[in-house]
Amino acid sequence: MSSRMIDGFGTTALHAELFSDEAVIGAMLRFEAALADSQARLGMIPRSAADAIAQVDGLDASGLAEDARESASLAIPFVKALTARAGGYVHWGATSQDLLDTALVLLLRDARAVLSRDHARLADSLRALSEQHARTVMLARTVLQPAPPITFGYKAAGWFGGVQRSWRRLSQAFDEVLQLQFGGAAGTLASYGKRGPELAVELARALELPVPSTPSHSHRDRLAFLITQCGVYSGAVAKIARDVALLMQTEIGEVSERGGGSSAMPNKRNPAGCVVTLAAAAQVPGLVASFLFAMVQEQERAAGGWQAEWPIVARTVQATGSALAAIATTIEGLTVNADRMRANLDATHGAVFAEKAAMLLAPKIGRADAQKLVAEALQDKMLREAMAGHLTAEQLQNIDRPEDYLGAAETFRLRLLNEE
Amino acid sequence: MSSRMIDGFGTTALHAELFSDEAVIGAMLRFEAALADSQARLGMIPRSAADAIAQVDGLDASGLAEDARESASLAIPFVKALTARAGGYVHWGATSQDLLDTALVLLLRDARAVLSRDHARLADSLRALSEQHARTVMLARTVLQPAPPITFGYKAAGWFGGVQRSWRRLSQAFDEVLQLQFGGAAGTLASYGKRGPELAVELARALELPVPSTPSHSHRDRLAFLITQCGVYSGAVAKIARDVALLMQTEIGEVSERGGGSSAMPNKRNPAGCVVTLAAAAQVPGLVASFLFAMVQEQERAAGGWQAEWPIVARTVQATGSALAAIATTIEGLTVNADRMRANLDATHGAVFAEKAAMLLAPKIGRADAQKLVAEALQDKMLREAMAGHLTAEQLQNIDRPEDYLGAAETFRLRLLNEE
Amino acid sequence: MSSRMIDGFGTTALHAELFSDEAVIGAMLRFEAALADSQARLGMIPRSAADAIAQVDGLDASGLAEDARESASLAIPFVKALTARAGGYVHWGATSQDLLDTALVLLLRDARAVLSRDHARLADSLRALSEQHARTVMLARTVLQPAPPITFGYKAAGWFGGVQRSWRRLSQAFDEVLQLQFGGAAGTLASYGKRGPELAVELARALELPVPSTPSHSHRDRLAFLITQCGVYSGAVAKIARDVALLMQTEIGEVSERGGGSSAMPNKRNPAGCVVTLAAAAQVPGLVASFLFAMVQEQERAAGGWQAEWPIVARTVQATGSALAAIATTIEGLTVNADRMRANLDATHGAVFAEKAAMLLAPKIGRADAQKLVAEALQDKMLREAMAGHLTAEQLQNIDRPEDYLGAAETFRLRLLNEE
Amino acid sequence: MSSRMIDGFGTTALHAELFSDEAVIGAMLRFEAALADSQARLGMIPRSAADAIAQVDGLDASGLAEDARESASLAIPFVKALTARAGGYVHWGATSQDLLDTALVLLLRDARAVLSRDHARLADSLRALSEQHARTVMLARTVLQPAPPITFGYKAAGWFGGVQRSWRRLSQAFDEVLQLQFGGAAGTLASYGKRGPELAVELARALELPVPSTPSHSHRDRLAFLITQCGVYSGAVAKIARDVALLMQTEIGEVSERGGGSSAMPNKRNPAGCVVTLAAAAQVPGLVASFLFAMVQEQERAAGGWQAEWPIVARTVQATGSALAAIATTIEGLTVNADRMRANLDATHGAVFAEKAAMLLAPKIGRADAQKLVAEALQDKMLREAMAGHLTAEQLQNIDRPEDYLGAAETFRLRLLNEE
């Protein structure tokens, strides 16, 4: 009973798989097998018991989710089912949260690898786009209106900077989250007597996870860091999609996607990749708010907040991954129409250089008067005409040459691409 | 590839089914079949074409969701697949939004029936609980501290009032949403010439839906009304769960759930139903925010906002349904410990009647002084002792009798239960 | 110490005043005066005590807010200060929540009047705009791309429908909220013995508020209804602003605001009213989520959730009011450029009538082939040229006449304007 | 026209001042003065012009906020007003965003200092509390039910760890945000020709801010990082408040605040500091969602998203600061009742050691059977009695001694306090 159709944009097929019932069971089994193996190595349980657990390579998921509602814990029916298969040393001395939190960490480790690959793809495409269009001039647009020129290379570098910085923070968050969670019923590992910390080290090694200094328990700031940085990353990605969709408006036409069609209009080219990106990213901020609210967890284990986390975490990562995958593909296939960019610039008849004209006039007549003079002159004339008599011939000559009014665009572009 | 395990509390099995791939395909097929049938009846397409469409009773869902990412529309691969099966009159003159919005309405109609049944179950249990405990006195608790007495019957009636009022608004919202969406590419039904409105009436009839005066199109306030009222309803439901979980603390022990166990502590009784309720309800407010943000849809069809709706709507309804199902079952199985309620009241040694004592003293010495006197006296004495000498013998006699300090509790209880 | 500058778009001056310290103190004094007066009328307190309270027409606000942090209740320092001025019968038998909830209701009543006035202004302008442009044809735009034509009158009617429906729901919510809150410490009015309900009726009359059947107490669904409908209304308003800002892009140029300037570019015309609307509306969905989370209030009075409400409620109403005021003024001053609308339509060279062409061809060659044929033909030809040989002369003649492809636009427009 | 009363818990007086009109004007003046001074030093404008600007030490705020609505930019009326006072070289070559973004940074720098001081206060108190109660045993509580013992010292160390980690991330975010924003109209500093970067360095020095490699412009990830980490920090703080409020319930009574009173019940002690903390923290997650949504900013400057930021940022920081100030004071004044902690432990009659008993039995009869045996035995007997005959005399002796079942509590406590 899949629900991929209702959620086609909130996740990709791959990210759906990463949090599927099969994946969840796999991660839970992996925890229990590693726990038993570590305990056998430390002589806490018989080796044969550990071997029996290790041999279980799947469980029937059907029914587990419903049973979980009885106890408000997926761990209970799972441990029961696994015990029925592999005997009484299953989950020895552990608690639900050890199992569930660590299983989630294992799932997130796989998800990180996918995100990482797609981010590299996106970053590479943006860098290439920026290099290729280092000199392609175009209008900046502020408040949806034309503004002084930039280069498309600088614009792409800005996108690159946004996702690159956001990725670094998200990576840091993954580093904090991807560690063993192991605390026992009260966060003290008391069921193992004095040997808790030793077992934790062994277990972490078996799972190839760092061992944390202490269990996270009801302190959820590490996961919250991850979720919020998914939020920031999604925002940076969605910003690109919005820009591209706007540039792709027929009346502007400066870029185009390989794009999608319409069920009613046979010829229509839609910014489909941007739409998927935006639809996916739109899921995230609300999820972030939900996670932050759920952080207020009672005492040593919450009544509600903790149990609310799994779907929030999965959906956040999936939606981030979906947005990322869609924009990466979009950018890879983006066509840039440099002629149209220049044509749209020219069509302003120099109006976007009004600032430049005012700056040239201002030393003579003051900034306020210069702005007023320029604004009034532009009511009914093109800039060049409007400024005749006010500027020198040489000033007039280049007054509306975009290449002459790019300021530090190239400097900034290079800095963005080269920031470590 | 189900993901029930990751989302075991965010939906029930039943609500998961209602938005599954099978259900979505079924609803989409139903729209196309009804459209074709209506068009055949109006002579717009051949009857044989409509029959061919009507005969398709399933489509392979696999691949549709991924294909949808190419065009940012599930309708496109769906119509293509259906056309391959049932010929060229499929989706005749319609647009993606007609199909998708109406399919969603059909899914929501089914979900409403389930919610309605569970709400009735909850309302009935709350009413019965209130009637049964009309005279069971207990502490009110304000700011998590003891306050003057109420009855458990009044408390249950308050819960009833909250969900009952919220249900009425949610019902009104369903009434607004459950109607045909049919506007064609630009919301004008132009592809049908002058016959659009006539076809809309016919199609609505075929789907047993009301025909709206106009298509909703990019104006999403009706759905927003539904989503927000799921939010309010979930909040009312979660409030009950929080109250019950708090009353069930071992140190308070005034009610108990049939409850769930623990994977580590064999004897533990957890407020499992409340936890599931709270974990489910915690999903909703963030989803509501997402929907409201997504309402800002560009022109005649949005680039992102509209496409973001499906998972938000499905999850909101599912989480509301999950919270509701869990609390209904919890309330049905609730055990009330009236002795413990009275014992907790008695254990305050009259302190919760301090207000009463102050009110009795105040006419003589003023409210401020009366409050001061009572507060100071209660520092080291029980109320009865503290007030000796200040109150008349008769006043003193009943000063800490909860039954004498219930005010309008019963009046209000009855009003809550009997509000239409 | 005002903070209007940091929040210039989140509220108007008028809405800031409605929730200012002066307004809050005024509302709180009004409650206490009405309470005392009612009690005097019922012989519960001396008339002279009520008169003393009624004579206080202001309190020094400085310090009250800071003092409120000591007790987590603004009522406590307020009652203390008022008692110091007007004697010991202040707040007789009442509780903090009676005072604070009702004061909020009084503030909201004033805010409603302002919202109502601005909504009428907006609705009237939209209606007029729709009537005036009933025949002004323009491109629909779906997914930010050109689509078959509509009229600007229909578009404006769609905006009208969105805000009008949302206003009706918001009005209903105000009706539910604008009533007396009066329950005493435990929601039983026990401090008044049997006379609580009688006093409630008297008090409600004095405040010109409906008397509710029961106190709302810790059941916050009524306020939640109000807040969520502010959310829906803001969304409907923001949708208009986004549409207008997009239509106002220089490259599209179909409408323009009276608009604002730029600090750097002297000649620039920005969609300033739309920007203020969007900036204000962007505050609301997050606030709605906060309110819904805060609804989960413990027992008879919450520890946190209730106390979180005031700023959420005030900001939600203020931001809604700010968005509304800005869009109303924007629409009142909107200039519509019908020539540009037609020019943009013409510039598609008939491509937006591809659906029409396909519908005409489809009966002959099937929908799929027709769509394919049209799409391919439009790759390098204009529609009229592309369809030569495929359509009849008569069909060809009007194939790209927008007036011939408006479907039910006018029917729907009239329905939207005339819905009660 | 202050609104401190409506927002008494959402901000402290100090944090209100930090974002007041006076503070905003001060920061904006400081930017303009520093800009002019830098330009004079570089010979771009006359020294006398810079001096004139530097001499303006205040502007009348009234009217600026309302005027800002005309242009959707506070910078425009501000620059106009300042130009009227200090002449035509004001804001020379700069754009609104340079002024407004940098002014915000200056405000945030001051806010950081206040947060930093309060965090130190909180961290110190938590550390002291943890040291003092390293051996105070108490119940852990999971899902609001008793669980195996911990120490209060470990619990306090857990709180410490949560806020300490969150503070480190928040500090990192402040480091990223607290830098000059300076890009000119299009982010290229073109109005300064080739000298833009040089001027940026000079300006940053004058403002004692780091100079960023490039302007942030419409890429808002740095601010988003700050806002989200306020969210995480607030969540960590609110978790403490919820724990304390629950421990302070009369029936539990393990800690108490210096606390606040009630307007109706003279003797009541409320967890007032916790309530203020929770009410403040409850504002934040919704604000975080709003910021993340607003991140999707169009092109080189957004139409709505950017202009929405100021109130979101100010309120987020203020609410975080308010929650922090309240919890710091609460923890400083916290009374711990170690006797009550032990009494509550004892009152479980050993039930919380059921896990321990089961672990002792399990090697003999298997985990599942051991758990079953213990659970059944505990139905009607106390643990010690229930286990007689099953455990050895020595095991029985200490079966319910909390000190013997603390596992790694002390190890973990020390690690939490000593993590760098």
Characterise this structure:
Chain A has 420 residues and is mainly α. Helix content of chain A is 61%, strand content 4%. Chain A has helices at residues 13-18, 21-41, 47-55, 64-71, 75-86, 96-132, 152-177, 196-206, 221-247, 272-281, 284-294, 309-332, 338-346, 354-365, 367-380, 383-387, 393-398, 409-418; strands at 137-142, 145-151, 255-256, 335-336. In chain A, a hairpin with a 2-residue loop joins strand 1 (137-142) and strand 2 (145-151). The interface between B and C is large, with 103 and 102 residues.
Strand order of the largest sheet of chain A: 1-2
CATH class of the largest domain in chain A: Mainly Alpha
| Multimeric state | homotetramer
Given helix and strand content, the structural type of chain A is mainly alpha
Radius of gyration of chain A: 29 Å
**CATH evolutionary superfamily of the largest domain in chain A:** Fumarase/aspartase (Central domain)
Summarize the topology.
The structure is a homotetramer of 420-residue chains.
Chain A: H1 13-18, H2 21-41, H3 47-55, H4 64-71, H5 75-86, H6 96-132, E1 137-142, E2 145-151, H7 152-177, H8 196-206, H9 221-247, E3 255-256, H10 272-281, H11 284-294, H12 309-332, E4 335-336, H13 338-346, H14 354-365, H15 367-380, H16 383-387, H17 393-398, H18 409-418
Antiparallel strand pairs in A: 1-2, 3-4
Helix pairs in contact in A: 2-3, 2-6, 2-8, 4-5, 6-7, 6-12, 7-9, 7-18, 9-10, 9-11, 9-12, 10-12, 11-12, 14-15
